[in-house]
Amino acid sequence: MFERRSQKNSIAIEKIFAVLVVVFTSITFIIQPVFSIPDEGAHFTNAYSIFHDDPKRGNFSEYRNQYSNNIDMYRNFTFIERFTKKRTYNQDKLGFNFTLGRVQYLPQSVGMLLGQFIYPSAGVLLSFGRLFNLIIYILAIYFAIKKAKFGKWMMAAVALLPMSIQQAVSISYDVFFFVTVFLTFSLVTNLVTRQERLKWRDYLPIFFVICLLFTAKQSSLVMLLYFLALPVSLIKPNFFTSIIDAIWQFFNRYRLLFVVLIILSSLVFIQYYFKNYDGLTRGLQVLFNTFFRPDIKTDLDSTVVTGIVGNFGWLTHRFPEWFVILDFIFLFLILLNEPKIKLQNRFVFTSTIIFLINIIMVSMTMFTLWTVGALKQFDFMHAVGEQGRYYTPFLLCLIPMGIFLQKFITVKISNFVMRDLFVSVVVINFIYFVVLTLLFYYTTDGGVRFILQIIKWIRGIL
Predict the structure, then answer these.
(1) Using one digit for the tens of pLDDT, what is the confidence trace for 264-310?
(2) 115 near 51, Cβ under 8 Å?
């Protein structure tokens, strides 16, 4: 059960989030260059094609190829042309090509359609698409934090990480992905703490979240495992609940045997997944090299780990590792100061497993579909193409483990000290992100000599 707190000492975390996210995203909306987010040109055409028919039947490939991140346009300030130069979008007839599989592009496409009517330039279309995507991000995550029964500080912190802010102010479908993970976790916190059985109306948000999981990135499907770890008391006892309960009772009684079964099942799955790539031994070697050999996978630290917090643009500028370590320490402190609540071991275990499975599955998918499939690197013994942003929203899955660790690690921080620490860290993160963005895109040399130039400018004034 939750610790009782007086109304006087309570803090509306969702309100703090709302203020900070509006400020952060407003500034980012202004300074973040067009098409500067990974694959944003592809996301542009995917969203644009929902309300347009391509007469050339080339999936608007001319737009996809033209809209790349041109750094020089910002360093010489010719990027204004992206906003002022009209494009001949009217050559593409309006159409309606929406399917459920493209729902993650719907907000952007509506914004882009409106932008086209206002002024048909690439910059205007992209800006309106970003704006509508951003509105969904802010409203959905505010709602998720407000309705969550625990983990609010961590949810707000993850949603305000510089990497999250960059993706929120983009046309990428990562916004839909982030929203899906946040809403799912928020719903799960309500279900796992619920004391009475579900009523018919309670199944509506469950159905809604499951639909989101099936329409977002495939990696989000792993969160369906949460529904196997919920209290069986939520529904009327039946054959299915008795089976689930029996499995978890077996886990509690024979934990070592259960772990062995999980390991054996994982090996069987790896053998099946890599059956066309030399099987189990190749799979194990690929996974080992991907996660434990930074000399082989040279972007393991810079792109994957650092990218969870901040590897920006087209992987062009990022936070240093020492700063990322401080951010991870900050997130760990938040986990250890979440309100104490009694959680079943099955839920803690499942949530942690979801976090780990997501990491492994993303790497396996990137190996088969990208490393071998797209790049044709058949001899590679490690996965290529993973980025830390794929894992950022899944940091929420570590919240139950953090609450569990409070039994062994005691770190007490008052609500108001936590509030001040939280605001300070996220603001410092954002300022650093803004400085890196301005230096990289808006100075002629990428900010290599900016201190010398500022001192020279001050001396000139004096």
Answers:
(1) 999 999 999 999 999 999 999 999 999 999 999 999 999 999 999 99
(2) no
Tell me, yes or no, whether 104 lies in a domain: yes
Angle formed by the axes of helices 13-31 and 122-147, to 10°?
170
Which amino acid is it at 198? L
Q: Show Cβ contacts of residue 253 under 8 Å, excluding neighbours closer than 6 positions.
A: none
Mean local confidence (pLDDT), 80-91: 76
- HSE at residue 283, side-chain half, CA atoms within 13 A, is 19
How far CA 122 is from CA of 111, 128, 190, 426, in Å, comes to: 13, 10, 43, 32
DSSP H or E stretch at residue 317? strand 317-318
From 3, 58, 27, 95, select the one nearest 427 (Cα to Cα): 27
Distance of CA 93 to the CA centre of its chain: 34
In a domain, 350, yes or no: yes
pLDDT digit string, tens, across residues 427-458: 999 999 999 999 999 998 889 998 988 898 88
Other CB atoms within 10 Å distance of the CB of residue 354: 21
Name the residue among 213, 146, 230, 129 with its Cα closest to residue 176.
Answer: 213
Q: For residue 397, what are the domain limits?
A: 10-461
The rounded distance, in Å, linking the Cα atoms of 22 and 442 is: 23
- Distance in angstroms (rounded) separating the CA atoms of residues 110 and 105: 9
Beta-carbon contacts of 212 under 8 Å, excluding residues fewer than 6 positions away, are: 179, 180, 183, 184, 220
Within a domain: 2: no
Distance, CA of 310 to CA of 292 (rounded, Å): 21
Domain count within the chain: 1
Q: Does the predicted model carry a pTM greater than 0.70?
A: yes
**Quick check: is 5 in a domain?**
no
